[in-house]
Amino acid sequence: MAWTDRIRSDPLPWLLEPDTPAVRAAALQRLLDRPADDPDVAEARARAMRADPIAAILAAQSPEGWWVKPGPGYAPKYTGTVWSLIFLDQLGADPAHAGVRRACEYVLGHTSTAVGGFACSGAAKEATPAPSLVIHCLNGNLLRALIGFGYLHVDRVQAAIWWAARSIIGHPEHRFYASSTCGPMFACAANDRQPCAWGGVKEVLALARIPAGDRDPQTAAALQAGGEFLLSRDPAEADYPMGWGNTKPSSSWFKLGFPSGYVADVLQVLEALVALGHGGDPRLGHAVDWLVAQQDREGRWANRYAYNRKTWCDIEAQGKPSKWVTLRACAVLRGVGG
Question: What CATH number does residue 45 fall under?
Answer without folding.
Answer: 1.50.10
